[in-house]
Amino acid sequence: MRRFRLAGTVPAGLLLIAAALPALLGCTEGAAPPPFDIVIKGGTLYDGSNAPSRTADIGIRGDRIIAIGDIAAKSEKSLDARGLIITPGFIDSHSHFDIAVREVGWRIHLADWRGVWKGNHAQLLQGVTTVITGNCGMGHPDAKAWLEQVDALKMGVNVGHLAPYGAIRNELFDNRADAPLVGAEVESFRRRMDAEMQRGALGMSIGLHRMPDGLATADEVVEIAATVKNYGGVLSVHLRNDSGRLQDHGQAAVVESLAEAIGIGLRSGAPLHISQIRLRLPFTDVRSSQMRRMVEEARKSGLDVTADQSPYEATIDPLPARLPAGLLSGAALRSEYRSGEAPEALKRAVDELLLVRKPERILIVSFPGDRSLEGRTIREIATKQKKTAAEVCLALLRGDPAPVAAFFETNDKVMRALMPFPWVFTASHAVPSFSGDVTVPPSYYGTFPRKIRKYAIEDKIIRLNDAIRSMTSAPAEKFGLQGRGRLAVGNYADIAVIDLKNFADAATYGELQKPARGVVHLLVNGIVSVEGGKVTGHRGGRAIRRF
To answer: Cα–Cα–Cα angle for 304, 483, 422, nearest 5°?
Structure first.
């Protein structure tokens, strides 16, 4: 029988099992099968921790890593990683993939000929092997049904799920959005959250920045979060307001909102995760150090608090999304405001929108009503049309449908300052589109290579090891993803083999749907999903349940 050598810490029992495998299978020495299904040869390993990189082979049997070291034994398949790096598959800790699947309905079953649907090609080509859905209080309200659908569809990536507060509230109380829950309603919600945790949810998410989640009081969230804590689950909170706008008492909104979320975490005892920690316009004089101190003081007091961020300055939304809620019907301007003389309230809202965000910082990325305006800022359109920015903005708001815009409203200095801290994860915050009628942000195609290329390799504001950890072991540990996020014997074979010299994002706000480059091979639960830089069509994704 051929011998193979293992380096690193390997349980003695595993060595015995590997050596005895042919006998266990009833094979003679001459007919012994290779001890590995796949061996990845000669890559530089970044194992997901802060340990130094090293050169090693990885041996895989079934869906697991069974050896790391200098492997001399034969395998059914060999993947060459010489000159490349090997990392754990990346984890997108904030995805809205479930929203897209629900919206497309039965058409998701057409995905066999449109791999970008359930095949998750955009994620695979970034090195992503796992996504967490149910974020911001939105998404599938039934964890059991959603996770069963994930398994039935045989998706390209693994999927874990947070029970979304807003979606569950709408289901329980028939879309009531007029007041906080009280008394028996809170108890009813608590019982439902108990059931969701038993059905496999990793925790609960709430988006206090949107309705109906914004109606929730801190006391209500604390009571429900205590149930999540009983199961070891995570409470994920999108802040009520992440701008620097000064409140009536002089406190910046983002500081006040961060203090509220930390207070909920401390009172409930639930591990807290802040969705998309950032500072949005208006910035005023908020400093990253102030936000950092709040988090680190909470961590010193014993609260398990983490956050995630997207490495992009802009957010893509329908243009009306930045107007006051009273002027809107859903994500569109109310019908009575779309023609005739604009009411003063709308004119004031447009003036404030342009005062805070500036017409040169609002880029039209999609407008079926006039494709010639796509790729232009409101300032550029106004100059060309010889109109004021307010006149152009009002006309665009009245479009049917209104255009989708990229709002360059995130403070890049704050994002960069917070990025290197070990409690900050990497996330796309993206809602994919299967129907073609929604504009997909570049973060859906490029989040993970962008962080590594721009911020680790080029700008050097975060070490490569730390950037990889922020998208592998750190989120895996936080969300309880057992056996994932680390390259270790016994863990699942979620593995990315990357050409670091060419690893980069390609999607921009001018060319949105361009896949990343640089992932040479990718395995999801031992299934080769990308080989030689091309998606194979073999899907290895699974539902991930807390129990």
So the answer is: 35
Q: Is the model's pLDDT at 182 over the cut of 90?
A: no
Read off the DSSP letter of residue 454: I
Domain assignment present for 528:
no
The verdict on residue 420 lying in a domain is yes
Residues 8-23 have pLDDT tens digits of 344 434 433 444 444 3
Q: Which of 36, 60, 83 marks a domain boundary?
A: 83
Nearest to 403 by CA among 378, 431, 385: 378
| Cβ-count burial 472-494 (b if 16+ within 10 Å, e if not) | bbbbbbbbbbebbbbbbbebbbb
Where among 465, 483, 501 does a domain terminate?
A: 483
Q: Work out the average pLDDT over 112-141.
A: 84
Q: Are residues 59 and 96 in the same domain?
A: no
Is there a contact between 215 and 255 (Cβ–Cβ < 8 Å)?
Answer: no
In whole angstroms, give the CA distance from residue 446 to residue 443. 5
Give the distance, in angstroms, between the CA of residue 411 and the centroid of all CA atoms in the same chain: 20
Distances (CA, A) of 228 to 221, 265, 351: 10, 11, 43
DSSP states of 401-432 as a string? SPPEEEEE-B-HHHHHHHTTSTTEEE---B--
317-321, 322-326, 342-346, 412-416 — most confident range: 412-416
Count the domains in the chain. Answer: 3
Residue 503 lies in a domain: no
Same domain? 377 vs 475: no
Instruction: Give the number of other Cβ atoms within 10 Å of residue 398's Cβ.
Output: 18
Same structural domain, 231 and 187: yes
Tokens linked to 137: 């209080």
Cβ neighbourhood burial of 426 (10 Å; 0-12, 13-18, 19+): buried
Do residue 169 and residue 279 come from a single domain?
yes
Instruction: Tell me whether residue 517 is exposed, middle or buried, using C-beta atoms within 10 angstroms of its C-beta: 0 to 12, 13 to 18, 19 or more.
Output: middle
CATH number, domain containing residue 229 = 3.20.20.140
Higher pLDDT, 97 or 109: 97
Residue 163 lies in a domain: yes
